[in-house]
Amino acid sequence: MSTNLTQTSSFLFRFSYWHLILVITALNRVGRPHKKHQPITFPILDCIFFKHINPAFDEVCRPTSIPILTMVSSATLYSLCTLAVCIYLWQRRPRTSRLPPGPKGYPLFGNVWDIPHDHSWLTYAKWAKKYNSDVIHLNVFGAETIVLNSLKAATELLDKRSSNYSDRPRMIMANELMGWEWDFAHMPYTDRWRRHRRSFHQYFQPRNLSAYYPVQRKVTVTFLEQILQTPEHFSAHIRQHVGSIVLRAAYGYEVKTEDDFYIDLAHKAMQPLLLVVHAGANMVDFIPALKHIPAWFPGATFKKNAEIWARDTLKLRDIPFENLKKAIAEGTAEQSYACDNLEKLTVDGVIDPAEEEIIRNCAGIMYLAGSDTSASLVHSWLLAMAHYPEIQRKAQEEIDSIVENSRLPDFNDRSSLPYVEATLLETLRWAPITPLALPHRVMQEDEYEGYTIPAGATVTPNVWAILHCEEYYPEPFKFNPDRFVKGVNKGGLQPDPISTGAFGFGRRTCPGRYLALNSAWIAVASILSTYNVSKAIDNEGNVIEPLIEYEDGLVRYAYYTISSPFKSAHLPQKPP
Ligand code: HEM
After folding, report:
1. What is the position in ligand 1's atom list of the atom closest to the CA of 377?
2. Which atom of ligand 1 is nearest to 249's Cα?
3. Which end of the chain has fewer beta carbons closer than 10 Å to its terminal beta carbon, N or C?
4. Does ligand 1 come within 6 angstroms of the Cβ of 374?
C-alpha cells in the first residue's frame, strides 16, 4: 500500500515537473523572435532546469521518498505552471493600443536580458536608430519603461504634460529597504513632496543666491591655494570646494579638511545608493514580493546589504542636523538653510514636528544631490581645457580684458564674460553629468505620436542622446563653446543645455541648478585667471595624453590618466 502511494506520488511529481518544463519551453518558442532555420536555444531558466534541478529531482523522486512531500511538491509545480500560463496570457492580452517599439524580449521575463547594464544611454540611442523611433518601450517582468531619446519627446511629455509625468517610480531597493524615502528626489508626486520642494526652492531660487557669494569666494581662494600646493590632488580639491559650499548652505558647517567627517559620512551613504539606482540593478525593483524574503535566506544578500546601508542613510540625515540643533542652542550656529528655517518656524521654543522633518530632509539631501554632480562639472571642464588649449587661451584673454590681472574675477563680472560662460555650458552639453537624469513615472495612460504610454510606466529621458543630437548641436562630439555665444556661431545660437535636459525636466527639474552653476562658475573663472590648465608631463618629459573616459552610473564622472592638469601661472590673489 505504502509502496503504491510512493510510486503514485513520484509519478505525479515527475508528470507535473515535465509539464512545467514543457510549458516554459513552449512559451519561449511562441514568443521568441528566432529566425526560420535557426536552432532554438533555451534561455537561462531552461538551462537551470535541465542542468541542475532535473538531476536533483530525479534523486528526490525515487520511490523511497516521503510521499506527502512529493505530493506537495507536485502541487507547487502545478501552481507554478498555472501562474506561468496566466502571466503569459496577461502579457499577451489584446491591447487596443500600440506601444512604442523596442527589443522584443521573452514571454514572462520581457527584456530582462536586454537591459544594458553599463552606459545604457548609448544602447538606448542605438535602439532609437534601429527601431526608427525616438520613443522606445521595454518591459521587465511586466514593469514597463519608456525611454525618450529626443528633445521633442522629452519636452512634450515631461515639460508640457508635467502634471501627469512628475511622479517617481517606486524604487523598492532604495526607498523601502535602504531607507531613502526621506530624500525628496525619490518621493512620489504628492503633497509631501510639494512641501519639501517649496521649502527648498524658497531658499535656493536665483534671487536669494547672492547670500552664498561670500562663502563661494572664500572656498575658491582655498581651492586655488590647495591646487598650488598639491596639484596632483586636484580631484580631491574640487570635491572639497563643492562639498564645502553645499554643507555651508545646508548647515552653516565649515569643511576644513579633505577627509572631513561629514563628507565621509555622505560618501558612505551615497556610494551604495549610486550602485542600486542603476537601471536593472535590483531584481526586487521588478519583483516587489522579493522584498519580503528574510535577510538570512540563502541568496538574499541584497537584504543583508540593505540593512547595513540603511544605517548610514539615517546617519547622513540625522547627525549633521542634531549637531546643528546643539549649535543653535549654544548660540554658535552660522546662517544656513536649516538654521534660518528652524529659527523662523520655532514659536515659543516649539516647532511643528512635520515642519522640522521637512527641514531635516531637505538639508540632508543637499550634499547628496549637489556634491558629486557639481564636482563632475568642474572635472569635465578641466579635461576640456587640457584638450583644447586654444579655447582656454580665448577664455583667459576675455577674463584678462575685464580683471586686468589685478584681482580674481567676481560674480559682478559674469555678464561681461560670455565666452567663459559658454565654456561651462558647452561642458554641460559635451559631458552630460546625469545622462539619464532621474526616472519619472507617468500616472495616467497617455498617447504620444500614436503610441500608448501605459499608466505607471517609468519614463526615462535619454539626456545624453538629446545633448548629442546633430539636429540641434552639429558636430556633437566637438567641444565648441561658440555654440552658445551670440553672433559668433554661423548657424545661430544653439539651445542652452540647461533647458534641454542637463538638469532634468518639468516640475522635477533640479532645484539646486543655480547654486551649482554659481559654484562652478567662480571656480572655473578663478582657475582661468590664475593657472594654465595643461596635459601632464611624465618623468621623461613626454606629454601624457589624457584619455577621455567616464565612470558609469547615475552621475557620470570623468577620470583621467593624468597626474595633474595644472601648471602654475601666478599665485592666487585675495578676492575683492
Ligand atoms: C551640476 C550639478 C547638478 C546637476 C547636473 C544636477 C542634476 C539633477 C537632475 C538631472 C535631477 C533630476 C531632474 C528630473 O527628475 O528631471 C536633479 C534633481 C535634484 N537636484 Fe540636482 N543637479 C546638480 C546640482 C544640485 C545641487 C547643488 C543641489 C542642491 C544644493 C541639487 C539638488 C537637487 C534636488 C533636491 C533634486 C530633486 C528634485 C525633485 O525630485 O523634485 N542638485 N538634479
Report:
1. 1
2. 30
3. N
4. yes
* Nearest-CA residue for atom 16 of ligand 1: 504
Contact by Cβ (8 Å): 351, 343: no
pLDDT for the residue 550: 72
Question: Quick one: CA torsion of 385, 391, 397, 403, rounded to 10 degrees?
Answer: -50
Cα 432 to averaged position of ligand 1 atoms, centre (Å): 13
Q: What are phi and psi of 177, to 5 degrees?
A: -105, -35
Binding-site residue positions for heme: 510
Q: With a 6 A CB cut-off, is 197 part of the ligand 1 pocket?
A: yes
Distance CA 369, CA 245 (A): 13
Evaluate whether 478 touches 390 at the Cβ level (below 8 Å): no
Residue 432 is predicted with a pLDDT of: 95
Quickly tell me which residue has 543666491 as its cell: 209
**Pairs from 390-394 (Cβ < 8 Å, separation ≥ 24):** 391/423, 391/479, 391/481, 392/528, 392/532, 392/533, 394/419
Closest residue CA from atom 22 of ligand 1: 510
Ligand 1 mean position to 369 CA, how many Å?
6
Query: Ligand 1 center to residue 147 CA distance, Å?
Result: 20
Atom 19 in ligand 1: residue holding the nearest Cα: 510
Using one digit for the tens of pLDDT, what is the confidence trace for 256-281? Answer: 877 788 888 888 888 888 777 765 56
Blockwise average pLDDT, block size 10, the chain, 576 residues: 64 67 57 38 44 52 56 68 67 70 87 85 96 94 93 98 96 91 94 97 92 94 91 87 94 84 86 74 81 86 90 92 94 94 90 95 92 91 91 95 88 96 97 94 96 96 97 95 88 92 97 96 95 83 76 70 47 36
Delineate the domains of the chain, giving CATH numbers in brackets.
121-568 (1.10.630.10)
What is the reported pLDDT for 447?
Answer: 96
Residue 575 CB less than 6 A away from ligand 1: no
